[in-house]
Amino acid sequence: MALGGCSSGSEPELKVSGAFMPQPATDMAAGFLTIENTGDSADRLTSVTSPLSDDVQIHETKDQKMRQVKSFDIPAGGELNLERGGSHIMFMAIKEKPAQGDKVSIELRFEKSDPVKVELPVEAPNHNPKKHQALGD
Ligand SMILES: [Cu+2]
Question: Ligand 1 centre and the CA of 90: distance in Å?
Fold first, then answer.
């Protein structure tokens, strides 16, 4: 994504990190990642596509219930965190069940920025890099 390297106008500058998918147990799967915006203009994540599913949605979690949303804000100088227990990417009716160690390709689409391709490594079902609790379940 090094195109337009000489631009200095107000544009979002996105960087994706920490992407993963917990190994799915059903025909639905979730994806998590962080999108950092180091630019000086806000952007929005508007959709996600993947060969794994023809129906990839973006969900937020409110009161322990998830619901589909149209987009997520990525504030200028801020970040969008998709993490367990919060907002996430949801793959409905997946065509096959990836196993730990596999990689799932996705493409993130934005309101302003060019689409970004990301590989989600498939991790253990309970994998949670951001959780610092002594007890798992
Ligand atoms: Cu969901």
Answer: 5
CA of 66 to the centre of ligand 1 (A): 5
In the reported structure, the alpha carbon of residue 83 is separated from the centroid of ligand 1 by a whole-number distance in angstroms of: 11
Domains and CATH numbers, the chain: 14-120 (2.60.40.1890)
Please tell me the distance from the alpha carbon of residue 102 to that of residue 98, in angstroms, as a whole number.
Answer: 6
User: pTM of the full predicted structure?
Assistant: 0.87
Find the 12 Cα to ligand 1 centroid distance in Å: 26
For 42, phi and psi rounded to 5 degrees? -75, 155
Each of the 137 residues of the chain gets a pLDDT tens digit; together they read 555 555 556 899 999 999 999 999 999 999 999 999 999 999 999 999 999 999 999 999 999 899 999 999 999 999 999 999 999 999 999 999 999 999 999 999 999 999 999 999 999 999 998 765 444 44
User: Which pair of structure tokens corresponds to residue 105?
Assistant: 């390709």
